[in-house]
Predict the 3D structure of the following.
Amino acid sequence: MDLVLYAIVYVCDEENRFGSRISQQIFPVTEGKHEKNTSYTFDKVFPPEATGGQVYEGTARSVVEDFLLGYNGLVCCYGQSQSGKSLTIASICIHVLQDIFVHIRQHAATMQYLVRLAYLEVHNESIIDLVGNKSASISLTMDLIGNFILQGHTNEPILSADHALSCIEAGRTKIIGKNGTSHTILRITMERERKNSNSPIHVAMLDIVDLAASHRVTVPPIDKSLLAFGHIIWQLSHHRTTALPYHDSILTQILQPTLTPSASLGLICTAAPSIESVGETHQTLKFASRAKRVRLELSLPVHHGSIQLEIYHRHLDALLSQRHSSDSIDNQIKLELAIRNLRQVILNLSE
Ligand SMILES: Nc1ncnc2c1ncn2[C@@H]1O[C@H](COP(=O)(O)OP(=O)(O)OP(=O)(O)O)[C@@H](O)[C@H]1O
């Protein structure tokens, strides 16, 4: 399969009016004193008044559709400080989660699912757990075949879109990097299995990333993770698909399963409206246009590590047999509660 990235910008004209003189997909750039008729062509260009739903439909929706077919996916937002990255990602999260849970309900007759959510911040090359309090126990290790394994973080089982959104809302209050100085990664892991069949459980991941600002008002120290992310996009845009330098930063190590040509990818670039930002906007457009050269070849992911749905099924069987053999009322009530909690977590589970 050959897919093209979405490179999306909010654009303005010389009078700081968003979008009004910009053709749908081409942005002429003035550089210094010299008018340089550089044009960039993108898959979609949105004016600032575009709704979150329109931006989602035109960008992340296709990545979510691929994710629901079983592919890993990455949606990320790149741009200078105060250009609307966090606002865009927040709105995209709502639509992503709604679509995932609509899909789960539509497949209630045949499929059961476990959906888990991790929300992490990468700040100065440290990882912060934004859902739980497990930052100290998070580790990234490499297995024998070069896969980075992220462990020790909270991976919360999610019961509904609203449940996920309240976890994200609470997580946002814990973010320590202000003014675009950190990256946030929302990782949705979906395990699915066909009901009443012995077919294997499939695991896919979707990462939604609010990258640190590409340019800030104060001169920032170079962000190692953003640099490494840009480097991998550069390599992919030159159609290099092996020996990608994931080890260069914490962000790229975490994103290894989704920042790859075998996963679906949607890149959203945001530009600030002021004419003073035109230099930064030009840099962003150059990045977006480089990223547009990336070609993807989707393939179903191979999961490394344990499958939680299998662990839950074993646990459920053990609880059911303990309830069967228990003759203490107190114990039976406790077991009943534990069984009910576990049945809630495995979505669409048949009674
Ligand atoms: N399309 C838009 N129209 C109007 N205002 C917007 C738009 N996008 C963002 N804003 C406003 O601009 C401000 C900055 O937005 P946001 O925090 O999303 O930017 P950011 O790129 O994540 O910034 P930083 O990198 O500094 O964290 C916010 O007050 C937001 O409400």
User: Anything to note?
Assistant: The longest helix spans residues 85-106. The chain has two domains: 3-296, 308-345. Residues 208 and 302 are 20 Å apart (CA to CA). DSSP finds nine helices and 15 strands in the chain.
